[in-house]
């Protein structure tokens, strides 16, 4: 009899577990029925067409809208390389006067000459780059054997030691191997 009783309990336990499993399956299926949707189908050609339309609109210049300059945006932009015409000092008296006062703008007794160039464009570009980096750079024109040289100089201070220290700093930061000149 003990054997029949344990077999009956085993069958009863398995049956109860099977019924619980079926009930749980039915409940989960009915709960998930509204939550799981069919896979969504996309129209690839419509998506590609929409992308191409957006790209065309983005690349189309907006001529009707005025430019809105933002101070900080302009600071982040690099200085545009422009073709600057060669300067002939003989034809422009204002440039001659400006040249005379270039040395006056150097406040110290010494300066660091970082370049001597035959192209005014190259000299002006270098001065802009140095000014952006915080150096007080000027162009000093000089005529040597009938050729005009544009010397780029940076204010070096009132003591030679200051100028030599600044020259070493400029060389380290910019790679320009200048030398100290007295004014």
What do these coordinates show?
The chain is of the alpha+beta class. The chain folds into two domains: 1-32; 44-183, 2-Layer Sandwich (Alpha-Beta Plaits). It has six helices and four strands; from the N terminus they run H-H-H-H-E-H-E-E-H-E. The protein has a four-stranded antiparallel sheet with strand order 2-3-1-4. The longest helix is centred in the first third of the chain and has 32 residues, at 2-33. It is elongated and about 125 Å long. The relative contact order is 0.10. The model has no long low-confidence stretch (mean pLDDT 76).
Q: In short, what is this structure?
A:
The chain is α+β, with helices and mostly antiparallel strands and 183 residues long. It has helices at 2-33, 44-59, 71-76, 93-102, 120-132, 160-174, and strands at 110-117, 137-144, 147-157, 179-182. A four-stranded antiparallel β-sheet has the order 2-3-1-4.
Q: How do the helices and strands line up, and which of them pair or pack?
A:
Elements: H1 2-33, H2 44-59, H3 71-76, H4 93-102, E1 110-117, H5 120-132, E2 137-144, E3 147-157, H6 160-174, E4 179-182
Antiparallel strand pairs: 1-3, 1-4, 2-3
Query: Averaging pLDDT over every residue, what do you get?
Result: 76
State the CATH architecture of the largest domain: 2-Layer Sandwich
**Low confidence ranges:** none
What is the makeup of the main sheet? 4 strands, antiparallel
**Helical residues, percent:** 40-55%
User: How far apart, in Å, are the first and last alpha carbons?
Assistant: 124 Å
Q: Could you state the order of secondary-structure elements as H and E?
A: HHHHEHEEHE
**Whole-number total of structural domains:** 2
Structural class: alpha+beta
C-alpha-based Rg, rounded? 40 Å
Tally of helical segments: 6
CATH topology of the largest domain: Alpha-Beta Plaits
Q: Quote the beta fraction.
A: 15-25%
Q: Please provide the count of β strands.
A: 4
The general outline is: elongated
Question: For this structure, what is the CATH class of the largest domain?
Answer: Alpha Beta
Strand order of the largest sheet: 2-3-1-4
* The CATH superfamily title of the largest domain: Sporulation related repeat
